[in-house]
Amino acid sequence: MELKKYLLTGLAAATLLSTFQACKPKGAGEAVSGGAAEKAYVAPGKYDEFYNFVSGGFSGQLSVYGLPSGRLLRVIPVFSLDPEKGWGFSEETKPMLETSHGNVPWDDLHHVQLSKTDGEYDGKWVFVNANNTPRLARVDLTTFRTAEILELPNSGGNHSSPFITENTEYVVAGTRFSVPVDGESGDVPINTYKQNFRGTLSFVSVNKENGNMDLAFQIETPGVNYDLSRAGKGVSHGWFFFSTYNTEQANTLLEVNASKNDKDFVLAVNWKKAEEYLKAGKGKKVTGLKYAHNKYDEKSHTSKTEFKTETIVLNAEELEGLCYYIPCPKSPHGVDVDPSGEYIVGSGKLAALIPVFSFSKIQKAIEGKQFEGKFGGIPIIKYDAALYGEVEKPGLGPLHTEFDGKGNAITSFFVSSELVKWNIKDLKVLDRVPTYYSTGHLMIPGGDTKSPDGKYVVAYNKITKDRFLPTGPELSQSAQIFDISGDKMQLILDFPTIGEPHYAQAIRAEKVKDKSVKIFKIEENTNPYATKGEKDARVERKGNQVHVYLTSIRSHFAPDNIEGVQLGDEVYFHVTNIEQDWDMPHGFAVKGARNGELLIMPGETQTLKWVPDRIGVFPFYCTDFCSALHQEMQGYIRISKKGSNVPISYSVGTNLPKEGTN
Amino acid sequence: METTNKMSALHRVLLVLCSLALVAVIFLPIWRIELDAAQYPEGLELQIYSHKLAGQVEIINGLNHYIGMKTLHADDFVEFTVLPYIIGFFALAFLAVGLANKPKWVYVLFGAFLLFGIVAMVDFYIWEYDYGHNLDPNAPIKVPGMAYQPPLIGYKQLLNFGAYSIPDIGGWIFIGCGILLAYCAVQEWRKAKQ
């Protein structure tokens, strides 16, 4: 019966193989279950429930998506030039990109924070950070435009930013790269990191009425890398928590040298105490700095740069009770505070557990001096004295945690590429879903407020690969929306995003949409180069500068025939859109312009500088398809040789064709 | 017969109330023209008061230049100077007739009011005709045989715009006063006949 034996063995092997095959995890295609499309569907012409403000990463811009549809609503230019909107190209917006280094046309925008009142989003402003050349920006939610940019001194890479306190008292900016302080004393050997490099935390105050930012003070701490931070809220209001890594203080090959310590720190800062020390005059005034403060004014439609030179520095080592370190495993990334303010979740990006600290235990530990030593003169609280508990085996590489307002937290895992939901009280894992692929940040609408809107969680992923049609080696980024209204997280939509999304926040649409500005009132336009009616349209020569005061309205420019400009002149086209109707922008472009175009909203004035480089007649035209006669919306400017006797002349509709032959 | 020379108390009260209502008409929009187009889902509105034009006049003027329609300016209309006085006169007349207590005056007032109403509508029609037909020959959009006269009352499609012309709150009050006046006149007349 040899044959039978062979057959049986063969059958057993086949069964075994097929069983192994069945054990293989299911592909992504099967992760979507019924009803998903319906949940993400927003009918044409209907509005989304939420505005989702998503950082544009290395695009330097801030994108706005609707949730749950994932529709891109707008890309707001912030730190990078935007030729589409003339941002950084018009004379009015150029000062917004000014820094102590000169005009910086690009940055890396990582994190997004909506302004808060009583720990809830108030829908006034969005704050964002520039990671490369350290800056903070404020976007106004009535215009969806960048209203202010503040540079930060003594910083090198503004990553731990722009996290805000529960009443937007402060926006913080912790330096990612510790550096020697600004100035000539900074000329030190790189390997003197421990002695000379400082970790500066900037506290920027925000004016409640107009949102204006001001560098209130800086806290000087030992040199480490500051990664992320969150303000305390509720019971922990008055405190700020910063995650640190590279407490090894390495200055080379950080991949290895900054991963040695079993635990780095979360730095707890008592900012109310800092205010007391400031009042008591314990701050040290530092002068001789240079940092830019740029503001955009919506009445004059113009920005201005002011260079500042001073700040006040508080020394964390010298001022008792200002700062405490809490050990946190394996190079923590996110440090997130739950809605009650009691629980602080650390996320060691190389760890396989999630430590949850208790604010009340931290307070007790400080009171009872349960310290295990000092780091750079700052007390280190004993790990167990601060710890509420650890989430066991949640996944590998926790990065960020948001809260659903129902007693649960959802943490993103980069290495194991998933979202994991766990209960804050009993620290038990409740659910996990795969993400595509390697989630960095995640977001629940209101996820960092006192009352999160636990309807959706969005994962913003670092790797896209096969999620959409391939577009060569360079792909868009990807995000996924999960419905979290039930016990199980359910994937409902994939959508591509710009740049690389890091943090994002979402706010209920009704808190923002009704405040949206439709037009700028022409009578309130205080731009010195505004032209408020066609009768004021004109051309003026001032030395070699020619100022063209243009108006645009459907479907012509006034003037549209300009002569008397010479080679060597600098021409400034000051274009005022005199429309007063919603969604009626006009564009302006002129041949050979080496900067960009203008896009001018109704009632606004914007200026394009144009230096003609040759003799001839140059057309200019409207770039935004404004009307049925948009293609007729054009003009000519004649450039004569230097010293030509062609007088300055300008007109619209009167310079009629000369009859006769050539 | 003394009794037939007196008006009923109800009619006198109604006339005095109408007088007050007419004062209000001076300050309220009398007529409105609503415009709808694909690009204007929110609609555009022109409101006609006794003394001014309101609504999105500038936007409508901006659009009308495509078809060569004259721009609308309140200063171009003598009506906006005269109308408040005429309505004011009627307010006083309603009051006077109510107080005078003479049925004969009710008939006279009704006749005058009706005449005014007809003249006003004719004037409005001429006004619309003029704007709808006297177009700039150099207009960018010229459709042979097309005129852009808005409807006197009701709905009409004018190229991509739908125009809807109806009385506004002041107009409805005015019409209401006319109906009440007519009612008083008829009732007084029937009473006199008996």
Architecture overview:
- The complex is a heterodimer of chains A (662) and B (194).
- With 662 residues, chain A is mainly beta.
- Chain A has 2 domains: 38-468 and 476-515, YVTN repeat-like/Quinoprotein amine dehydrogenase (Methylamine Dehydrogenase, Chain H, 7 Propeller); 528-651, Sandwich (Immunoglobulin-like).
- Chain A is built from 7 helices and 47 strands.
- In chain A, the strands form 11 sheets. Chain A has a 6-stranded antiparallel β-sheet, with no helix packed on it. A 6-stranded mixed β-sheet of chain A has the order 10-11-12-13-20-17.
- Chain B has one domain (3-193).
- Chain B has a 5-stranded antiparallel β-sheet with strand order 3-2-1-5-4.
- In chain B, a hairpin with a 4-residue loop joins strand 2 and strand 3.
- Chain B is elongated, with a radius of gyration of 20 Å.
- Classes of the chains: A mainly beta (662), B alpha+beta (194).
- The interface between A and B is small, with 11 and 8 residues.
Mean pLDDT of chain B, as a whole number?
92
Largest sheet, spatial ordering of strands of chain B: 3-2-1-5-4
What is the radius of gyration of chain B computed over CA atoms, rounded to a whole number of angstroms? 20 Å
Which sheet architecture does the biggest sheet of chain B show? 5 strands, antiparallel
Number of domains of chain B: 1
> How many helices of chain A in DSSP terms?
7
Helix percentage of chain B: 40-55%
Chain pair forming the biggest interface: A-B, 11 and 8 residues
How can the largest sheet of chain A be summarized? 6 strands, antiparallel
How much of the sequence of chain A is in beta strands?
35-45%
Q: Average pLDDT value of chain A?
A: 94
Domain tally of chain A: 2
The span between the termini of chain A is: 110 Å
Report strand % of chain B. 15-25%
Termini gap of chain B: 12 Å
Structural class given helices, strands, pairing of chain B? Answer: alpha+beta
Q: Helical region count of chain B?
A: 5
Q: Regions of chain B with pLDDT < 50 over 5+ consecutive residues? A: none
Q: From the helix content, strand content and strand pairing of chain A, which structural class follows?
A: mainly beta
Name of the CATH superfamily of the largest domain in chain A? YVTN repeat-like/Quinoprotein amine dehydrogenase
Q: Globular, elongated, flat, extended or rod-shaped: what is the shape of chain A?
A: globular
Keywords (chain A): Copper, Metal-binding, Oxidoreductase
Organism (chain A): Sphingobacterium tenebrionis
Protein name (chain A): Sec-dependent nitrous-oxide reductase
Enzyme class (chain A): oxidoreductase
